[in-house]
Amino acid sequence: MKNWIDIAALTDIPKRGGRVVKTSQGCVAIFRTHDDRVFAIDDACPHQKGSLSEGLVHGSAVTCPLHSWVVDLETGLAQGADQGGVTTYEISVEGGRIRLDASRLKSRSAA
Ligand code: FES
Fold it and tell me: pTM for this structure?
């Protein structure tokens, strides 16, 4: 069962930019692409936990600011020869508001 929480206005996040949302289960990075798609993933790079929300968005991927790993925003997986991934979260954008499905945050903490 989904647990939608309102987290921001779409205009709070610049195109090709990211923001971090703090939840009781950890930080989630929210990204807006050049064509107004919005993605949410854990804000901890699979390499050495760099803050992905501070990375560069290109297409539907983000480049980590620390050592330039590229993480796919749709799958959460590292690209190229790099291995690993982060949790992705479902997002809904309605009426200019971004909502995050927090149900995975809860199930993750219960695991
Ligand atoms: S911590 Fe992200 S590439 Fe190293």
Answer: 0.91
The tens digit of pLDDT for each residue in 10-39 reads 999 999 999 999 987 778 999 999 999 999
Interatomic CA distance for residues 55 and 103, integer angstroms: 26
Cβ(66) – ligand 1 distance below 6 Å? yes
What span, in angstroms and rounded, lies between the C-alpha atoms of 30 and 81? 25
**Burial class of residue 13, CB neighbours in 10 A (0-12, 13-18, 19+):** buried
Evaluate: CB of 69 within 6 angstroms of ligand 1. Answer: yes
Residue 104 CA, ligand 1 centroid: distance in Å: 24
How far away, in angstroms, is 50 Cα from ligand 1 center? 5
Q: What is the DSSP letter of 76?
A: -
Question: Domains, the chain, ranges and CATH?
Answer: 4-110 (2.102.10.10)
Question: Could you please report the per-residue DSSP string of 2-61?
Answer: --EEEEEEGGGS-TTEEEEEEETTEEEEEEE-TTS-EEEEESS-TTT---GGGSEEETTE
